[in-house]
Write a structure and sequence with these properties.
Elements (H helix, E strand, L loop, with lengths): L1 E3 L2 E2 L5 H12 L5 E8 L4 E8 L1 H16 L17 E8 L5 H19 L3 E5 L10 H4 L3 H10 L18 E5 L4 E7 L4 H11 L9 E8 L4 E8 L7 H14 L4 E7 L9 H6 L11 H4 L3
Parallel strand pairs: 5-7, 6-7
Antiparallel strand pairs: 1-4, 1-5, 2-4, 2-5, 3-4, 8-10, 8-11, 9-10
Length: 294
């Protein structure tokens, strides 16, 4: 069993998001476990599982539906993005290996590039060079800077040497499981969220296995520290939350709530943790293993 968690650059038009979900769900052998959208991020995240062949068919159906409607020239949202289908990671679960996920990612990337005339970059374990491993490095500057970067030599692994007019480019790869974890603060100061993100992320000397950035949620007049926790055994969700809360408290700011985007492994989340981190919604609905059909 392999997990796939595509991020699509649409979080406001529910009918389109539902159509993408239906395109995935309609593929035999694929189980759509969860999908959710964030209007401020203007982004949706889909989680589904299956074997390699079924996942390949489902991902191509997802691209077909999303690319037919999304136009990044008119897209606005606070989350960084490079493409209409921004990133497609494959994650090994039961009985699958990372090598199999790398092979699947490479095959899917090549097919997407050929079928949709879309530039595709490989990342993480599927990356073809060390400087392509990091998603944030590939996505630097977003869709708006992509044409200039490609003209200067930032060429994709597959596909055209210039961006797709409406869909930009895509990043496809293989990675270990992670938890996408957001903490909302009782302030609208983006500079404070940025400072907290710098304090907690590993690349700035913070917590190991934490990637973080500050984002504004203008519709609620608050800010968010958005994190990816890439090893919750080494840096548990509670530890990341506590450090954000500690840094915020030093500035006289309280934590409102937290949220998990997509699903988390059962070992990472329980009732006590959910209460301590002020998690929105029913924590049991965020557990990956509870959503996988027998």
């Amino acid at each position: 069993m392999i997990e796939c968690v595509p991020n699509v650059s649409e979080g406001r038009r529910q009918e389109l998001i539902d159509r993408v979900a239906h395109a995935v769900r309609s593929v035999p052998g694929v189980f759509l476990l969860d999908y959710s959208a964030d209007p401020a991020h203007n982004r949706s995240v889909f989680t589904f599982v299956g074997d390699a062949g079924a996942l390949e068919r489902a991902v191509l159906s997802l691209y077909e539906e999303a690319l037919s409607t999304i136009d990044l020239r008119a897209h606005r949202g606070v989350h960084p993005r490079l493409g209409a289908v921004d990133v497609v990671p494959f994650i090994p679960l039961e009985g699958a290996t990372m090598a199999e996920c790398v092979s699947l990612a490479t095959r899917v990337a090549r097919t997407v590039a050929e079928r949709f005339q879309l530039p595709v970059y490989l990342y993480e374990q599927a990356a073809t060079s060390p400087d392509r491993r990091s998603l944030s490095a590939i996505r630097q500057g977003g869709f708006e800077k992509l044409a200039d970067r490609m003209a200067a030599g930032f060429l994709p692994d597959f596909g055209p040497r210039s961006p797709h007019t409406t869909a930009g480019a895509s990043v496809v790869g293989a990675r270990v499981p992670l938890v996408a974890f957001n903490v909302n603060l009782s302030t609208n100061r983006l500079d404070l969220a940025d400072a907290i993100a710098r304090a907690v992320r590993e690349s700035s000397g913070g917590l190991p296995f934490v990637k973080a950035m500050g984002l504004p949620l203008a519709d609620r007049s608050i800010v968010q520290v958005s994190m990816n926790l890439t090893n919750v055994q080494q840096t548990p969700i509670r530890r990341a939350f506590d450090e954000v809360a500690r840094q915020a408290a030093r500035q006289g700011v309280d934590v409102l709530e937290s949220e998990i985007v997509g699903l988390a492994p059962a070992a990472a989340l329980d009732e006590a943790t959910a209460a301590a981190i002020r998690l929105r919604g029913d924590w049991r609905e965020r557990i990956l293993e509870r959503r996988i059909p027998a």
